[in-house]
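Incident log, support desk, overnight shift.

02:14 A customer reports that sequence design results differ from what the structure should imply. Their input is reproduced verbatim below. On-call engineer (initials T.W.) acknowledged and began investigating.
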């Protein structure tokens, strides 16, 4: 009997993916839920597990092929499945079962919590407890990082942290075990010593097993390393659990050559030139977080894909500031939230997007998708980087609803509590660099969106009004847009409509 292996759900608005790597070849024995291949989309990397135990039959979609949702990837022949890999998974769970002989309490596993739609793995960034520490129920044990958010992991029970399975820096999947809690224990140095010793002894074994029987490198990578005579120990793996991928081998092969070429030909342009010992001793190297790496990749992809252009204007903020000063106390008393500037900008942009719908659209292949809704992304700076929570159906919301939603999402973003669903599906973005003192900037598009508005610092400047020089609170506005879909006329019209609505807020009430 054969079982089909199909493309899983890829997340909101993602309709296709590319087969990046097959970790098994036809004829290989696979266990249920063992990873077969890895798919890449424009947002995330998705692992495809085996739906059943057996033997990998035919691979329908080879590496490099683009496939749609629910497309057939391969088949599994269920007869002759080997249970060996399953025993390997169950082995760590056997250790806690042996512990009750020494009057220890019930053992409870600490598992990876829900990571959100389309997120299949995370990196253990920080452990706040160590082996042997006493923990309370719901006390935070560690923090995980995904491509978008940080996730806190609370203790499922009160007791003692008996074992840490996934150390800091380890990449874990959505169903992995992180640690073990011994319920009802009081802790102490004597109790924790064996566990600590065990954790220490296991750490080198885990790292040394890379490329061995615990973490199997990609077949394509192993083949390339064999052909090129490259030692696997010299290759830094970027896959799950440090798995070496084909591109990692290519990087390891090219890195020394590239460095020597750069140093020999143009030393001043080398990515990293020689550093003297005194300077090196005062430097610090910190591994880039998953969030920062994703931000870097997506912003560069945006520049490489879109025909990005920026147009500028300036707005007299007197009207908004006077209206806000007049009603802010009454607004706060009635709605329980402060009246800020952002709700005026959201409303003004929603008004302008109705007149220039292509700024609210996106390109999908050879088609333009026009959206009859406005899901407004509001960029928020956090200690870990920039995130963009989405205010859904902002065009149908009141000033009070917008302010409440933005305030709540901003707080949760800074605390790392936003879910993936709350950061997906935006159709337009507003970024406020003015809160940091920026006077002028060119914001980068948030793909696949076609427009982003940059707000800046409000600064008093001399302006000419009716032949007289007067001091006005002015703000520069910048609209970056994808010139593939938005013409210059449409971009300028959009920005002028935003300017008009802000300089005379009554136009928003009259829908003018």
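02:41 Re-run completed on a clean worker. Output:
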């Amino acid at each position: 009997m054969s079982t089909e292996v199909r493309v899983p759900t890829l997340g909101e608005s993602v309709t296709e993916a590319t087969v990046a790597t097959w970790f098994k070849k036809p004829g290989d024995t696979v266990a249920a839920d063992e990873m077969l291949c890895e798919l890449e989309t424009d947002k995330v990397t998705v692992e495809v597990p085996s739906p059943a135990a057996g033997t990998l039959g035919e691979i329908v979609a080879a590496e490099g092929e683009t496939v749609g949702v629910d497309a057939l990837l391969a088949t599994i022949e269920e007869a002759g499945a080997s249970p060996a890999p399953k025993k390997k998974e169950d082995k760590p769970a056997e250790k806690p079962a042996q512990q009750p002989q020494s009057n220890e309490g019930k053992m409870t596993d600490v598992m990876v919590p829900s990571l959100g739609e389309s997120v299949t793995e995370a990196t253990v960034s920080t452990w706040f407890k160590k082996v042997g520490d006493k923990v309370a129920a719901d006390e935070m044990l560690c923090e995980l990082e995904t491509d978008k958010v940080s996730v806190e992991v609370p203790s499922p029970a009160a007791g003692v942290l008996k074992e840490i399975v996934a150390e800091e820096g380890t990449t874990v999947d959505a169903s992995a075990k992180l640690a073990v809690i011994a319920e009802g224990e009081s802790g102490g140095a004597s109790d924790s010593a064996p566990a600590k010793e065990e954790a220490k002894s296991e750490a080198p074994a885990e790292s040394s097993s890379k490329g061995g029987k615990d973490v199997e490198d990609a077949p394509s990578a192993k083949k390339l390393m064999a052909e090129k005579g490259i030692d696997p120990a010299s290759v830094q793996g970027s896959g799950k659990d440090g798995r070496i991928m084909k591109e990692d081998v290519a990087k390891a092969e090219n890195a020394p050559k590239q460095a020597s070429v750069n140093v020999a030909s143009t030393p001043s342009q080398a990515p990293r030139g020689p550093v003297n010992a005194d300077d090196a001793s005062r430097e610090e190297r910190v591994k880039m977080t998953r969030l920062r790496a994703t931000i870097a990749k997506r912003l560069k992809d945006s520049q490489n894909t879109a025909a990005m252009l920026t147009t500028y204007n300036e707005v007299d903020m007197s009207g908004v500031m006077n209206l806000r000063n007049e009603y802010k106390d009454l607004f706060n008393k009635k709605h329980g939230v402060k009246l800020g500037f952002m709700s005026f900008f959201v409303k003004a942009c929603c008004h302008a997007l109705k007149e220039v719908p292509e700024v609210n659209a996106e390109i999908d292949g050879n088609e333009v998708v026009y959206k009859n809704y406005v899901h407004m992304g509001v960029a928020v700076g956090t200690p870990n980087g920039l995130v963009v929570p989405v205010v859904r159906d902002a065009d149908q919301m009141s000033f009070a609803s917008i302010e409440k939603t933005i305030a709540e999402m901003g707080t949760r973003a800074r605390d790392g509590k936003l879910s993936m669903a709350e950061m997906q599906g935006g159709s337009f973005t507003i970024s406020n660099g003015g809160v940091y003192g920026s006077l002028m900037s060119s914001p980068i598009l948030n793909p696949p969106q076609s427009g982003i508005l940059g707000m800046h610092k409000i600064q008093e400047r001399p302006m000419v009004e009716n032949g007289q020089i007067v001091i006005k609170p002015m703000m520069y506005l910048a609209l970056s847009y994808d010139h593939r879909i938005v013409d210059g006329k449409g971009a300028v019209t959009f920005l002028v409509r935003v300017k008009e609505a802000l300089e005379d807020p009554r136009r928003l009430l009259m829908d003018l």
